[in-house]
Amino acid sequence: MTSAQSNSEPRLLSRIVVTWVELTVVGFGGGAIGTSIGGPAGLIIYFITTLVSVGILFYNMNELIKQWVAPDGDTT
Description:
Layout: H1 2-8, H2 12-37, H3 39-69
């Protein structure tokens, strides 16, 4: 019975680590590209980086919620 419970519990720590890595990669990448381009195009890159960061947060929160409320037989 404990193995069924461990499969149904969300993997919070791993999801936090994945989210942190994704945000770090996107943040550094967008910052580097935005700084190297500069000007109005760099500002647009910064805005895109912000939108992608918000998307990453929403996606990972959605995955946690889906794992948490999934029926007992469905762990996808």
